[in-house]
Amino acid sequence: MSESAFTARPRADRMRVLGILNVTPDSFSDGGRWDGPGAAAARGARLRAEGADLVDVGGESTRPGAGRVPADEELARVVPVVGLLAASGIRTSVDTTRARVAEAALRAGAVAVNDVSGGRADPAMSRVVRDAGCPWILMHSRGTSATMRRLAVYHDVVGQVVDELSRRVDAALAAGVPADALVLDPGLGFAKTPEHDWLLLAHLDRLCALGFPVLVGASRKSFLGALLAGRDGRPRPVAQREDATTAVTAYAALAGAWGVRVHAVRAAVDAARAVAAIRAAGPPDAPRPADGCPPAGTLTARSSPVRPN
Asked: Which of 47, 163, 187, 287 is the most exposed place for a label (fewest CB within 10 A)?
């Protein structure tokens, strides 16, 4: 991969920020807002102008309970938008679990694959990623959007998520995907209760200890809505969860995450830059809030993960 290509290496100056661009009618936060390739591409350009390192284009909702869309429909939603953005010099990732969609998006100009199934949904995905030589975000999940809620049962959510993700890494490496192409995502909200999500955030160091860059996707999710519920117990509406999202972004940066995936890019970039400035002003040996998670810019992937006991 050329030096100018997008890689999974951390930025030297701040944590990376992925801007969410859902070209779907039913995503939980912005479904139907960017109807048509032109409107979606304009939104992607705005996300890039606000500082997004990648615009993450998705054509199939993965909210709990969502049904699948035909592959041809997902292709029709995603590929034209990726092509328009790539033609404008804007880097995109494709948010898909289908190898066929990933391959077409990469041909259209996408530079990374964001796979919420962690490679479970389509065995051909590892070949597509390997042949493209691009970063592959492996997210932890269980089941499908339709079944994930009933699979949110753990005796040790942190240990089990780390173990299950490490198994996905093993499978990727066995398929020939290079270790330095992999990014890990704990999958907040995917087969998780709010209590599970908070525990995973509190123990990001355990995931970082596998030696791979870590992406955190908390933006506007239901566990934030539950936290901010009103006196009547109703969750805070999706559009009013942005301040809490930014707080999680700052925490992720402090914990050494490689990046965050967000709807509001400017706030996330500002938070990441502020954390980076604090780090730069402090002594190099200052204690970290999450022991064992190396600072952004120093993560290096092992050739093979160490699976926890």
From this structure: 287
Candidate list 77, 168, 261, 279, residue with the active-site label: 261
pLDDT in tens, 217-253: 999 999 999 999 999 999 999 999 999 999 999 999 9
46 an active-site residue? Answer: no
Those residues whose C-beta lies under 8 Å from the C-beta of residue 239, and which sit 6 or more positions away, are 29, 220
Annotated catalytic residue: which of 16, 221, 236, 241?
221
Q: How confident is the model at residue 2 (pLDDT cuts 50, 70, 90)?
A: very low
DSSP per position, 19-86? EEEE-SS--TTTTTSS-SHHHHHHHHHHHHHTT-SEEEEESS--STTPPP--HHHHHHHHHHHHHHHH
And the tokens for 232? 């009547």
pTM to 2 decimal places: 0.89
Q: Note if 192 is an active site residue.
A: no
Element (H, E) at 139: strand 136-139
Q: Which residue has the tokens 């173990």?
A: 163
- Give the pairing type, strands 112-115 and 16-22: unpaired
Alpha carbon distance 137, 135 (integer Å): 7
Span 168-195, pLDDT tens digits = 999 999 999 999 999 999 999 999 999 9
Task: Please tell me the distance from the alpha carbon of residue 149 to that of residue 60, in angstroms, as a whole number.
Answer: 18
